[in-house]
Amino acid sequence: MNARRNAGMGLVELMVWAVISMLVIGITGFIYVNGKTLARVNDSVSRMQENGRYAMYLIEKDLRMAAFRGCNGAAVAPTNLLNSAAYPYQYANGIAGYYGSGGAWSPALDASIAALSPAPTTNSDVITVRLIDGPAIPLIARMANATAAVQVGAGSPLAAGDVLLIADCSAAAIFNATSFDSGAGTIGHDTGGSATPGNTSDDLGHAFDTDASVYRLVTRTYYVAPSARKPGINSLWSNSVPAYDGQAQPEEIVEGVEGLALLFGEDLNGQRAANRYVTADTVGNWANVVSLRAQVLLGTTRDNVATSPQPYTFAGSSTTPTDRRVRSTLASVVTVRNRVP
Fold it and tell me: Given a cut of 90, is residue 256 above it in pLDDT?
Protein backbone atom coordinates (compact mmCIF):
# COMPACT_ATOMS: atom_id res chain seq x y z
CA MET A 1 0.00 0.00 0.00
CA ASN A 2 1.26 3.45 -0.90
CA ALA A 3 2.15 5.35 2.26
CA ARG A 4 1.45 8.80 0.71
CA ARG A 5 -2.14 7.82 0.02
CA ASN A 6 -2.70 7.03 3.66
CA ALA A 7 -1.18 10.32 4.85
CA GLY A 8 -3.46 13.15 6.12
CA MET A 9 -3.64 16.71 4.82
CA GLY A 10 -0.34 18.38 4.91
CA LEU A 11 0.43 21.85 6.24
CA VAL A 12 0.68 23.32 2.76
CA GLU A 13 -2.67 21.89 1.72
CA LEU A 14 -4.25 23.13 4.95
CA MET A 15 -2.92 26.63 4.43
CA VAL A 16 -4.13 26.67 0.81
CA TRP A 17 -7.55 25.46 1.94
CA ALA A 18 -7.69 28.13 4.66
CA VAL A 19 -6.73 30.91 2.21
CA ILE A 20 -9.32 29.77 -0.32
CA SER A 21 -11.99 29.51 2.41
CA MET A 22 -11.19 33.00 3.71
CA LEU A 23 -11.29 34.33 0.16
CA VAL A 24 -14.70 32.74 -0.47
CA ILE A 25 -16.06 33.98 2.88
CA GLY A 26 -14.69 37.47 2.19
CA ILE A 27 -16.26 37.64 -1.26
CA THR A 28 -19.56 36.29 0.09
CA GLY A 29 -19.53 38.85 2.92
CA PHE A 30 -18.66 41.66 0.53
CA ILE A 31 -21.55 40.69 -1.76
CA TYR A 32 -23.94 40.42 1.20
CA VAL A 33 -22.98 43.76 2.71
CA ASN A 34 -23.13 45.56 -0.61
CA GLY A 35 -26.42 43.89 -1.49
CA LYS A 36 -27.88 44.88 1.86
CA THR A 37 -26.64 48.46 1.44
CA LEU A 38 -28.05 48.66 -2.07
CA ALA A 39 -31.39 47.29 -0.88
CA ARG A 40 -31.44 49.86 1.94
CA VAL A 41 -30.69 52.70 -0.49
CA ASN A 42 -33.31 51.50 -2.97
CA ASP A 43 -35.91 51.15 -0.23
CA SER A 44 -35.18 54.64 1.15
CA VAL A 45 -35.32 56.28 -2.29
CA SER A 46 -38.49 54.38 -3.26
CA ARG A 47 -40.22 55.48 -0.07
CA MET A 48 -39.11 59.06 -0.67
CA GLN A 49 -40.53 59.02 -4.20
CA GLU A 50 -43.77 57.42 -3.02
CA ASN A 51 -44.13 60.04 -0.27
CA GLY A 52 -43.58 62.79 -2.82
CA ARG A 53 -46.23 61.46 -5.18
CA TYR A 54 -48.73 61.17 -2.34
CA ALA A 55 -48.01 64.67 -1.04
CA MET A 56 -48.48 66.12 -4.52
CA TYR A 57 -51.67 64.12 -5.02
CA LEU A 58 -53.21 65.56 -1.86
CA ILE A 59 -52.36 69.15 -2.77
CA GLU A 60 -53.48 68.74 -6.39
CA LYS A 61 -56.78 67.09 -5.41
CA ASP A 62 -57.76 69.91 -3.08
CA LEU A 63 -56.61 72.72 -5.37
CA ARG A 64 -58.70 71.42 -8.25
CA MET A 65 -61.82 71.72 -6.11
CA ALA A 66 -61.01 75.07 -4.47
CA ALA A 67 -63.76 77.70 -4.52
CA PHE A 68 -66.52 75.26 -5.51
CA ARG A 69 -69.87 77.07 -5.74
CA GLY A 70 -72.17 74.52 -7.31
CA CYS A 71 -73.03 73.74 -10.93
CA ASN A 72 -72.78 77.38 -12.05
CA GLY A 73 -69.30 77.86 -10.66
CA ALA A 74 -67.88 81.34 -10.28
CA ALA A 75 -71.06 82.95 -11.64
CA VAL A 76 -72.82 82.31 -8.31
CA ALA A 77 -71.94 84.37 -5.23
CA PRO A 78 -73.19 82.39 -2.20
CA THR A 79 -75.18 84.01 0.57
CA ASN A 80 -72.99 83.68 3.67
CA LEU A 81 -74.90 83.18 6.94
CA LEU A 82 -71.90 82.22 9.11
CA ASN A 83 -71.64 84.17 12.33
CA SER A 84 -67.87 84.55 12.08
CA ALA A 85 -65.34 86.19 9.79
CA ALA A 86 -62.44 84.25 11.33
CA TYR A 87 -59.87 82.79 8.96
CA PRO A 88 -61.33 79.25 8.79
CA TYR A 89 -64.71 80.62 7.69
CA GLN A 90 -63.65 83.01 4.94
CA TYR A 91 -65.15 80.86 2.19
CA ALA A 92 -65.37 83.77 -0.23
CA ASN A 93 -61.59 83.30 -0.62
CA GLY A 94 -61.06 79.84 -2.09
CA ILE A 95 -57.25 80.06 -1.99
CA ALA A 96 -54.79 81.91 0.21
CA GLY A 97 -51.02 81.56 0.36
CA TYR A 98 -47.97 82.72 2.28
CA TYR A 99 -44.44 83.04 0.92
CA GLY A 100 -41.77 81.83 3.33
CA SER A 101 -38.37 83.50 3.03
CA GLY A 102 -35.76 84.96 5.35
CA GLY A 103 -37.30 83.33 8.40
CA ALA A 104 -40.69 85.01 7.91
CA TRP A 105 -43.79 84.90 5.75
CA SER A 106 -45.27 87.47 3.44
CA PRO A 107 -48.06 88.27 3.97
CA ALA A 108 -47.78 87.55 7.68
CA LEU A 109 -49.31 84.23 8.71
CA ASP A 110 -52.83 84.41 10.05
CA ALA A 111 -52.76 84.04 13.83
CA SER A 112 -54.68 80.75 13.64
CA ILE A 113 -51.90 79.24 11.50
CA ALA A 114 -49.01 80.73 13.48
CA ALA A 115 -50.49 79.18 16.64
CA LEU A 116 -50.54 75.64 15.26
CA SER A 117 -48.40 73.02 17.01
CA PRO A 118 -46.03 72.16 15.54
CA ALA A 119 -45.68 75.55 13.91
CA PRO A 120 -44.88 75.88 10.20
CA THR A 121 -41.20 75.72 9.30
CA THR A 122 -39.75 79.02 8.14
CA ASN A 123 -38.51 79.40 4.56
CA SER A 124 -41.22 77.06 3.30
CA ASP A 125 -44.51 78.23 1.80
CA VAL A 126 -47.97 77.74 3.30
CA ILE A 127 -51.25 77.35 1.41
CA THR A 128 -54.89 77.34 2.49
CA VAL A 129 -57.59 75.82 0.30
CA ARG A 130 -61.32 76.15 0.93
CA LEU A 131 -63.35 73.44 -0.74
CA ILE A 132 -66.06 70.83 -0.38
CA ASP A 133 -65.35 67.66 1.58
CA GLY A 134 -67.16 64.54 0.43
CA PRO A 135 -69.95 63.86 -2.06
CA ALA A 136 -72.99 65.94 -2.95
CA ILE A 137 -76.10 65.11 -0.91
CA PRO A 138 -79.24 65.89 -2.94
CA LEU A 139 -82.38 67.45 -1.51
CA ILE A 140 -85.40 65.14 -1.60
CA ALA A 141 -88.07 67.84 -1.14
CA ARG A 142 -88.53 71.49 -1.97
CA MET A 143 -88.08 73.96 0.88
CA ALA A 144 -91.41 75.58 1.79
CA ASN A 145 -89.58 78.91 2.01
CA ALA A 146 -86.05 80.29 2.43
CA THR A 147 -86.11 79.79 6.21
CA ALA A 148 -87.50 76.24 6.23
CA ALA A 149 -85.44 73.19 7.20
CA VAL A 150 -83.49 71.50 4.42
CA GLN A 151 -84.65 67.97 3.61
CA VAL A 152 -82.13 65.30 2.55
CA GLY A 153 -82.20 61.53 2.63
CA ALA A 154 -82.42 59.73 5.97
CA GLY A 155 -79.04 58.55 7.20
CA SER A 156 -77.09 61.09 5.15
CA PRO A 157 -73.46 61.53 6.34
CA LEU A 158 -74.02 64.88 8.08
CA ALA A 159 -73.97 66.10 11.65
CA ALA A 160 -74.95 69.10 13.71
CA GLY A 161 -72.13 71.62 13.57
CA ASP A 162 -71.20 70.94 9.94
CA VAL A 163 -70.44 73.97 7.77
CA LEU A 164 -72.51 73.44 4.63
CA LEU A 165 -72.92 74.78 1.13
CA ILE A 166 -76.35 74.40 -0.46
CA ALA A 167 -76.41 75.13 -4.18
CA ASP A 168 -78.30 74.68 -7.42
CA CYS A 169 -77.47 76.25 -10.78
CA SER A 170 -78.86 79.67 -9.87
CA ALA A 171 -78.23 80.24 -6.15
CA ALA A 172 -76.06 79.12 -3.26
CA ALA A 173 -75.77 79.68 0.47
CA ILE A 174 -73.22 78.85 3.16
CA PHE A 175 -74.54 78.08 6.63
CA ASN A 176 -73.86 76.21 9.86
CA ALA A 177 -76.03 73.16 10.50
CA THR A 178 -77.37 73.93 13.96
CA SER A 179 -79.19 70.58 14.06
CA PHE A 180 -79.51 67.41 12.02
CA ASP A 181 -82.12 64.69 12.43
CA SER A 182 -80.53 61.66 10.78
CA GLY A 183 -83.75 59.62 10.87
CA ALA A 184 -85.81 62.32 9.18
CA GLY A 185 -82.98 63.85 7.15
CA THR A 186 -83.80 67.42 8.21
CA ILE A 187 -81.07 70.05 8.54
CA GLY A 188 -81.74 73.04 10.79
CA HIS A 189 -80.08 76.40 10.12
CA ASP A 190 -81.51 78.73 12.73
CA THR A 191 -79.63 81.27 14.81
CA GLY A 192 -79.82 79.35 18.07
CA GLY A 193 -78.06 76.32 19.46
CA SER A 194 -74.43 75.73 20.36
CA ALA A 195 -73.05 75.07 16.87
CA THR A 196 -69.84 76.91 15.93
CA PRO A 197 -69.62 79.40 14.28
CA GLY A 198 -73.44 79.67 14.21
CA ASN A 199 -75.60 81.70 11.83
CA THR A 200 -76.45 85.39 11.65
CA SER A 201 -79.80 84.54 10.04
CA ASP A 202 -81.92 81.54 9.12
CA ASP A 203 -82.77 82.97 5.69
CA LEU A 204 -80.91 81.12 2.92
CA GLY A 205 -82.08 83.69 0.40
CA HIS A 206 -83.68 81.06 -1.83
CA ALA A 207 -86.15 78.19 -1.46
CA PHE A 208 -84.06 75.33 -2.82
CA ASP A 209 -85.72 72.46 -4.69
CA THR A 210 -84.74 68.88 -5.49
CA ASP A 211 -82.29 70.08 -8.16
CA ALA A 212 -80.09 71.39 -5.34
CA SER A 213 -77.49 69.55 -3.26
CA VAL A 214 -75.77 70.03 0.08
CA TYR A 215 -71.99 69.80 0.51
CA ARG A 216 -69.73 69.86 3.54
CA LEU A 217 -67.22 72.73 3.45
CA VAL A 218 -63.73 72.61 4.87
CA THR A 219 -60.79 75.00 5.17
CA ARG A 220 -57.55 73.03 4.84
CA THR A 221 -54.06 74.47 5.31
CA TYR A 222 -50.95 72.64 4.09
CA TYR A 223 -47.52 73.42 5.53
CA VAL A 224 -44.16 71.88 6.41
CA ALA A 225 -43.21 71.32 10.05
CA PRO A 226 -41.00 69.02 12.15
CA SER A 227 -42.17 65.42 12.25
CA ALA A 228 -43.74 64.10 15.44
CA ARG A 229 -43.27 60.49 14.33
CA LYS A 230 -39.60 60.71 13.35
CA PRO A 231 -37.79 63.53 15.15
CA GLY A 232 -35.03 65.09 13.09
CA ILE A 233 -36.92 65.27 9.79
CA ASN A 234 -39.74 67.40 8.43
CA SER A 235 -43.17 66.34 7.22
CA LEU A 236 -46.12 67.74 5.31
CA TRP A 237 -48.91 68.65 7.73
CA SER A 238 -52.50 69.68 7.20
CA ASN A 239 -54.95 71.48 9.44
CA SER A 240 -58.65 71.07 8.61
CA VAL A 241 -61.53 73.13 10.02
CA PRO A 242 -63.94 71.44 10.58
CA ALA A 243 -62.23 68.04 10.82
CA TYR A 244 -64.93 65.73 9.54
CA ASP A 245 -62.76 62.61 9.78
CA GLY A 246 -62.48 63.01 13.55
CA GLN A 247 -58.66 63.08 13.45
CA ALA A 248 -56.81 65.35 15.85
CA GLN A 249 -55.64 68.54 14.15
CA PRO A 250 -53.15 69.45 12.85
CA GLU A 251 -52.40 66.10 11.20
CA GLU A 252 -49.03 64.78 10.02
CA ILE A 253 -49.72 63.26 6.64
CA VAL A 254 -46.45 62.69 4.71
CA GLU A 255 -42.98 62.18 6.19
CA GLY A 256 -39.81 63.40 4.53
CA VAL A 257 -41.24 66.57 2.96
CA GLU A 258 -38.62 69.24 3.64
CA GLY A 259 -39.95 72.20 1.67
CA LEU A 260 -42.93 73.54 -0.22
CA ALA A 261 -42.53 76.21 -2.92
CA LEU A 262 -45.60 77.69 -4.62
CA LEU A 263 -46.12 79.96 -7.60
CA PHE A 264 -49.65 81.22 -8.18
CA GLY A 265 -50.98 81.65 -11.73
CA GLU A 266 -52.89 84.92 -11.86
CA ASP A 267 -55.37 85.87 -14.59
CA LEU A 268 -54.83 89.58 -15.34
CA ASN A 269 -57.14 90.07 -18.33
CA GLY A 270 -60.25 88.03 -17.58
CA GLN A 271 -59.40 85.27 -20.08
CA ARG A 272 -59.36 82.61 -17.35
CA ALA A 273 -55.77 81.66 -18.06
CA ALA A 274 -52.65 82.55 -16.10
CA ASN A 275 -50.77 85.58 -17.41
CA ARG A 276 -48.04 85.30 -14.80
CA TYR A 277 -46.83 83.04 -12.01
CA VAL A 278 -45.81 84.79 -8.80
CA THR A 279 -45.09 84.03 -5.17
CA ALA A 280 -47.84 84.60 -2.63
CA ASP A 281 -46.50 87.98 -1.53
CA THR A 282 -47.02 89.50 -4.98
CA VAL A 283 -50.47 88.10 -5.85
CA GLY A 284 -52.65 91.08 -6.76
CA ASN A 285 -56.06 89.45 -6.30
CA TRP A 286 -56.56 85.96 -4.90
CA ALA A 287 -59.88 85.68 -6.74
CA ASN A 288 -57.90 85.77 -10.00
CA VAL A 289 -55.68 82.79 -9.19
CA VAL A 290 -56.59 80.11 -11.76
CA SER A 291 -53.64 77.72 -11.45
CA LEU A 292 -50.65 76.90 -9.30
CA ARG A 293 -47.13 75.59 -9.76
CA ALA A 294 -46.20 73.48 -6.76
CA GLN A 295 -42.75 72.10 -5.98
CA VAL A 296 -41.93 69.88 -3.02
CA LEU A 297 -38.48 69.08 -1.67
CA LEU A 298 -38.20 65.48 -0.53
CA GLY A 299 -35.59 63.79 1.62
CA THR A 300 -35.05 60.21 2.71
CA THR A 301 -36.24 59.58 6.24
CA ARG A 302 -32.94 57.74 6.91
CA ASP A 303 -29.57 59.45 7.14
CA ASN A 304 -26.32 58.00 5.77
CA VAL A 305 -28.02 56.75 2.62
CA ALA A 306 -25.44 58.49 0.42
CA THR A 307 -21.68 58.09 0.82
CA SER A 308 -21.21 61.88 1.06
CA PRO A 309 -23.36 65.04 1.35
CA GLN A 310 -25.44 65.46 -1.79
CA PRO A 311 -25.98 69.03 -3.11
CA TYR A 312 -29.50 69.84 -4.33
CA THR A 313 -31.39 72.70 -5.95
CA PHE A 314 -34.82 73.75 -4.75
CA ALA A 315 -36.89 76.83 -5.63
CA GLY A 316 -33.94 78.28 -7.51
CA SER A 317 -31.42 77.94 -4.67
CA SER A 318 -28.56 75.43 -4.43
CA THR A 319 -27.65 73.90 -1.06
CA THR A 320 -25.03 71.47 0.18
CA PRO A 321 -26.36 69.78 3.34
CA THR A 322 -24.32 68.49 6.26
CA ASP A 323 -26.08 65.10 6.37
CA ARG A 324 -25.96 62.24 3.90
CA ARG A 325 -29.62 61.95 3.01
CA VAL A 326 -30.71 61.63 -0.62
CA ARG A 327 -33.00 64.44 -1.80
CA SER A 328 -35.21 65.02 -4.80
CA THR A 329 -37.76 67.55 -6.00
CA LEU A 330 -41.17 66.98 -7.52
CA ALA A 331 -43.14 69.65 -9.39
CA SER A 332 -46.63 69.94 -10.83
CA VAL A 333 -48.96 72.52 -12.39
CA VAL A 334 -52.56 72.41 -11.15
CA THR A 335 -55.60 74.15 -12.63
CA VAL A 336 -58.29 75.49 -10.30
CA ARG A 337 -61.23 73.94 -12.13
CA ASN A 338 -63.90 76.16 -10.63
CA ARG A 339 -62.24 79.31 -11.99
CA VAL A 340 -61.73 78.31 -15.62
CA PRO A 341 -64.25 77.55 -18.40
Answer: yes
